[in-house]
Inverse folding.
């Protein structure tokens, strides 16, 4: 690294970095303009059907910041309700894949709440086909699905989700547990741990986002999770951080999400540097990028500045994401080779 990089050099490096994203929600990646288009497609007045705000330029965006976590959840669900048909879902999937490809994301694990669409009336077969077709429109990026259960919907809903996964013809690489921490104890979702093991796929648990270090412990102890969505509450607990570091439990950190949802006041107070200094294996992710007015590239830029990362540290960060991913082994090998090539290429 030169001592004084020219303005924008960091951004240029990030533009070409082969990226891996482990924590991003498909429905949380629907741009406000797309949600408006879907509402109109079905004859609805978008400003009644959706929580969107019109900017000075007449374009639509999401509220920012959200009043609180529930305000975000309601906005997210209003957007998801616009996805009424398999055609709508194929539009969303293709848009998402194009956005990832444009950023040089080689591998994405997209969390998708299948049960919400099924309970809104979509047949599972056409739903999975729409996702396959949408992703197939963009062959230069690869996407695996994490199908999540929402804690507060309870254990029966989670068992129905697991059944959907077992019957699915889709590129599913993992199960997820999301929703309001503390609403149902982690231990009641043991069928997700067992189901993931039986199906030979991963399990990622959102914990320690709005919750506490104990929620992170429960995800690891009761569900055997090796990947924690957010997990930033661990920064309050030195013993837990030591454990995550020793056991190699990976956190999927999403800095702008935590700020926009007022979980931390600003990026300067974000616990990412504390986790990093304690040796906790972190990865960097965007969560729900248009809702938080961000992208994976921007989140990696924030992390690079917060942690003072140089080119080889950025490469290491992406290597860690590749190794922690639920991707098939041949995909992991390709990802690691692409990162090696990026690290050593002439600039
Ligand atoms: Zn999330």
């Amino acid at each position: 690294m030169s001592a004084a990089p020219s303005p924008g050099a960091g951004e240029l490096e990030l533009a070409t970095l082969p990226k891996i994203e482990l924590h991003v929600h498909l429905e949380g990646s629907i741009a406000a303009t797309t949600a408006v288009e879907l509402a109109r497609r079905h004859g609805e007045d978008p400003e009644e059907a959706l929580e969107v705000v019109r900017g000075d330029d007449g374009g639509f965006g999401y509220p920012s910041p959200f009043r609180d976590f529930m305000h975000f959840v309601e906005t997210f669900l209003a957007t998801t309700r616009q996805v009424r048909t398999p055609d709508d879902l194929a539009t969303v999937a293709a848009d998402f894949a194009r956005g990832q490809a444009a950023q040089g994301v080689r591998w994405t694990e997209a969390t998708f709440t299948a049960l919400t669409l099924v309970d809104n009336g979509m047949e599972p077969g056409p739903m999975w086909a729409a996702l396959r077709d949408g992703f197939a429109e963009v062959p230069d990026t690869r996407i695996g699905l994490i199908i999540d259960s929402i804690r507060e919907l309870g254990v029966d809903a989670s068992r129905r989700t697991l059944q959907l996964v077992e019957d699915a013809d889709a590129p599913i690489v993992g199960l997820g547990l999301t929703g309001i921490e503390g609403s149902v104890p982690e231990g009641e979702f043991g069928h997700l741990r067992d189901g993931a093991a039986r199906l030979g796929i991963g399990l990622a648990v959102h914990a320690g986002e709005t919750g506490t270090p104990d929620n992170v412990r429960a995800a690891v102890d009761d569900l055997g999770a090796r990947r924690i969505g957010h997990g930033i509450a661990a920064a309050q607990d030195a013993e837990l951080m030591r454990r995550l570091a020793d056991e190699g439990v990976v956190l999927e950190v999403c800095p702008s999400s935590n700020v926009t949802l007022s979980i931390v006041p600003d990026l300067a107070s974000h616990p990412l540097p504390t986790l990093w200094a304690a040796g906790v294996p972190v990865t960097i992710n965007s969560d729900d990028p248009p809702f938080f007015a961000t992208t994976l590239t921007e989140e990696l830029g924030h992390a690079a500045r917060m942690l003072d990362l140089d080119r080889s540290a950025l490469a290491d960060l992406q290597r860690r994401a590749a190794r922690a991913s639920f991707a098939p082994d041949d995909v992991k090998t390709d990802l690691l080779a692409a990162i090696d090539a990026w690290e050593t290429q002439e600039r």
About this structure: Residues 23, 25, 206, 229, 287 surround zinc ion (CB under 6 Å). The chain has a mean pLDDT of 94. The beta strands are 19-25, 53-54, 60-61, 105-112, 142-150, 172-178, 202-207, 227-230, 250-253, 282-284.
